[in-house]
Amino acid sequence: MKKIILFLALSIGINSQAQQRPKLVVGIVVDQMKMEYLYRFSDDFSANGFKRIMNNGYTFHNMHYNYVPTYTAPGHASIYTGTTPSTHGIVGNDWFNKAIGKDMYCTDDAAVKILGDGTEKEGAMSPKNLLSTTITDELRMATNFKGKVIGLSIKDRGAILPAGHFANWAFWYSKTGSFISSTFYGSVMPDWVTEFNQEKRYMNYINKGWNLLKPIATYNESLPDDNPYEGKIDKTTGPVFPYDLNKIYKEKGADVLRTTPFGNDLLADLAMKAIEKEDLGKDDIADFLTVSFSSTDYVGHTFGPRSIELQDTYLRLDQTLATFLAYLDKTVGKDNYLLFLTADHAGAENSNYLKDNKYNVKNVPTKDIVDALKKYSTDTFGADLILDYSNFNLFFNKETIKLKGLELTKVKQSFKDFLMTQEQVKRVYTEEDILASSGDDYFLSCIAKGYDPKQNGEIVILDKTGFMEYQATGTTHGSPNSYDTHVPLLFYGWQIPKGELHAKKYITQIAPTLSQLLKIPFPNGTESEVLETLLEKK
Questions:
Q1: How, if at all, do strands 114-115 and 179-182 pair?
Q2: pLDDT at 6
Q3: Active-site position among 72, 136, 260, 302
Q4: How far apart are CA 307 and CA 222, in angstroms?
């Protein structure tokens, strides 16, 4: 009898220890998703996708980014590090780095080589430019590197940055239609990925073409098909359903899949294959799968937030999520996985759409801004003092300024005064203003949280609300305004209570909250502010 009691006690102890963490954490990022879409498209969603997560999990209705620029790479890095670009170092998708005097891409790494079928440039990628650890890194270390971490996305940065420095693998989409990786993660591509690529599943979606998922009357939350605020998927195809993807494929290759809902479907196929072949969530050591759905961003940029194309993309993503959730239930178990869903940024309304509806705003092409700056420089100082303008940052050529016998402080003030005369500009901040930020100025605080003095410019420009540095059609993002910062955050599954919260919270609270749920160390750059409502014991 004593032996039986001892055996039962040991069994209970082991099972209790196993329940300290879920078997699998799934982090989903939907690129360029506005919280508004969960409201606007709600009537057309199924019961088993977004609604299942919201109705049975926890919804944060007022989640925001607290820095600029609100772009893809900083967004993914901030979600998973629990800190902002000023700390984690990913200050843009690409940027002019004044420390090295040239442009750089967020995940460029010349020291690694491609694995798989793609170009060398597509594959020379790693997380080396990320200066903080991620929640995925901390899980790897907390499990003595026994828990697996795999990152997946159509975009390289959407796969690499969430997976962190210690990931087993990260895979991203190539122009060839294959998923690729780099030698940062291993010397040979896993057989299951090679086999997946050999199936050329992307062609199944291209051959089907893109027609509406539901009857046209369903899309009454969007503007008419072929409205003046939409761009084109290619030069010859107007923004009208149905889309002959085979025709476009012959002109653009497999890249066309990115700007359709089917990039999301292909990624979900790969995610389910990864769970199967890598045995994710199959034992009591927690694994972490990061999945970033990028096609929503490509569709948003091209067609804009009021297009039928965008709505159809979200209705299809809802179905994709339903299929993915059902797969997780079957393979990992309903009570064994923890899932969260958020976005790396939101997106602006098209400025011309707003203008046509009597809001006095407009789009301003970046080229026009650069041309105006260079003309002012030449007219005022007799030389082009501009080294670079990008991501709202202005960089000066300090060597030319010195050779001309000019004072940098006076040059900055002169350009600041000039920029304040431009119609789209709200405020202009110098490097000194930013580094002296007290937090009292909300916009300056956002800029300071996104600013690294070694990598950013000498001046940062803040545009007026509603103005958009972009082309006339489609949309973009990057500002500290709510239309770019307000994103969904949904938690679901293992030990997550049902509920909702409307108080304002910040994206940098996700990673430290996961740390507390998983009982592992915080990522090393985070300020450790958590979402307390997820941690309260009922």
A1: antiparallel
A2: 44
A3: 72
A4: 5
